[in-house]
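Reopening this one. Same input as before:
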Amino acid sequence: MDTKKLQNKEKKSKRKEVLEKRKAIDGIIKAASAEADHLAFFQPFQKFDRNGLTLCLESGIGDQLSSPMKKYIQCLLKLNMEGPYGPEWPAEEKIKRREMVAPEARYIFIRRARGTVAKETLNDDSDECQIHWMADGDSVVGFVQYRFIVEEDIPVTYVYELQLEPCVQGKGLGKFLMQLIELIARKNRMGAVMLTVQKANVSAMHFYTSKLRYTISTISPSRVDPLIGAEKSYEILCKTFHPEAKDKLEGNSFTGEAHH
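Same output, byte for byte:
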């Protein structure tokens, strides 16, 4: 009888512990999501002025996007992602349109600083040309979309999109933006930054795994089940910030070669 009572007591105690932990994680996610402008805390990251680019960053929220901004996001996604997704793109595009305007979607938009013109955009014949921007304020040349979610009982910042126009790629802007996202994640007590990468997007996979030291997560299909993973067109990458997150999301981690 005493043994049974003891077991019941232990079970109750464990249940309470699990519930308290879940409540704490929910609180962390809520607090992070309630912050309207994460960029406000990182003044050095509000401008990018190097390698011939003079850019300003600003925050945004999914359900507050203007119609021109929605159109811009759709155009840039199509430009950058139709190739890597291949025949999966029409279905994926519909999903991305829904994700784009979700109230929990957070954005960092990159705009050309007032009065600056990209040399690349002056040549209308160039494939590198900026998507034609008709909207409020200065022209936009890219964006990051991210959310605060829970993976394996760990609060994480999940980068849904990092999309830059060809004319601003290869100039350190992508690395700069991911450093900002990692700072936002740490400030908001997240255990990791995570993202999904198309295997076909070799340059993006190289960027994350080699340049930024992201690893293929334990929740990525190829690590959950190699047979299923072989059929999937993507990998899930992560960078963790503390031992519990590392244990649950990286495990015996290794890097892979496979973006967004």
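So the earlier flakiness isn't reproducible anymore. For the record, The chain has a mean pLDDT of 89.
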